[in-house]
Design brief:
25-stranded mixed sheet; about 10% helix; Toastrack_DUF4097; transmembrane helix; transmembrane; about 325 residues; membrane; mainly beta; single chain
Length: about 325
């Protein structure tokens, strides 16, 4: 028995020595900053920017001057830092920025990296930003059409302007938008995650969460919102457009700091209760699950549908 124990201990010791030799003879424990990878381009006559970050986190933000820069930032062991590639391709007025990590099936790597793109302050025809499995952040950009997408990650956008349309789409992740302006439309969708929008102006906004809560504050323009499995909360200073709100499994709460002077309300629910605190409505129908009313000349329409949840207008 004692010989067996000694033999087992010997095998463990040999294994530890072998692993230590591998670590010391490779770059697995060689911590370093990401290899300096930086590309630049002149923004003169540039109208289209496309950013593909692969599996990296990516930040795209405004900068001063006329030079656009793209840089890989981060740290890690050698296996991590040397796997990342950055490319920049220009075709006329269009610029394509690509960054990704080369797969290594038998490599042990750790650390973090992200792509940082700094864009000169001017109005572009289009800016498209995509990450396959990373977080995306865009700040203070101006483009006629602005699109931000990620397959698996969160999206954060702040102080962006799009005279045409603004699109934010995540397959699995939260979306947070602050101070967004789009003269045409805003489209925000996520399959699994919460949506939080604050301070945006758009001709028409479409907001959809398949599994998650939706919260919208201080908005202007027409708004259509749907939460398949989550609560839907819409709050603003005043009513300034038509609203359509639908929740399959969750509550719908709509509130304004200033009571609307003119609106038409159409609420229908299957399992839940409708409560209206706004004063001055004349009701055509009013029951627990059906409310149809009008105030003033009915300028703006509020349409609400719930399957399993309550509705409150205040």
């Amino acid at each position: 028995m004692r010989k067996f124990i000694y033999a087992a201990l010997g095998m463990i010791l040999i294994g530890i020595i072998g692993v230590a030799m591998i670590l010391l003879s490779t770059d697995l424990l060689d911590f370093e900053k990401t290899d300096a990878q930086k590309k630049t381009a002149d923004s003169q006559d540039l109208s289209e920017i496309q950013v593909d970050a692969g599996s990296l986190d990516v930040t795209v933000e405004k900068t001063t001057g006329r030079t656009l820069t793209a840089e890989i930032q981060g740290w890690g062991n050698g296996q991590m830092t040397r796997r990342t590639k950055l490319e920049m391709q220009r075709h006329g007025q269009a610029l394509h920025i690509l960054a990704d990590q080369n797969p290594q099936f038998f490599a042990f790597s750790f650390g973090w990296k992200k792509l940082v793109v700094k864009v000169p302050a001017q109005l572009y025809q289009s800016i498209t930003v995509h990450s396959g499995s990373g977080d995306v952040s865009v700040q203070s950009l101006r483009a006629n059409d602005l699109s931000v997408t990620t397959n698996s990650g969160d999206i954060t956008a702040e102080n962006n302007q799009a005279p045409g349309s603004f699109t934010a789409k995540a397959s699995s992740g939260d979306i947070v938008l602050k101070q967004t302006r789009a003269l045409d439309q805003v489209s925000v969708t996520t399959r699994s995650g919460d949506i939080d929008l604050t301070g945006f102006v758009a001709g028409h906004s479409y907001v959809n969460a398949s599994s998650g809560d939706i919260t919208v504050r201080n908005f202007s323009g027409d708004l259509s919102a749907r939460a398949d499995a989550g609560d839907l909360v819409l709050k603003s200073e005043r009513l300034s457009g038509n609203l359509s709100a639908e929740a399959s499994s969750g509550d719908v709460i709509i509130g304004f700091n200033q009571d609307p002077d003119s609106l038409t309300l159409d609420y229908r629910g299957r399992s839940g209760e409708g409560i209206v605190m706004t004063k001055g409505l004349l009701y055509k129908e009013k029951s627990e699950d059906l409310i149809i009313g009008r105030k003033g000349n009915g300028k703006y329409h509020i349409k609400v549908r719930t399957n399993s949840g309550d509705f409150v207008l205040r």
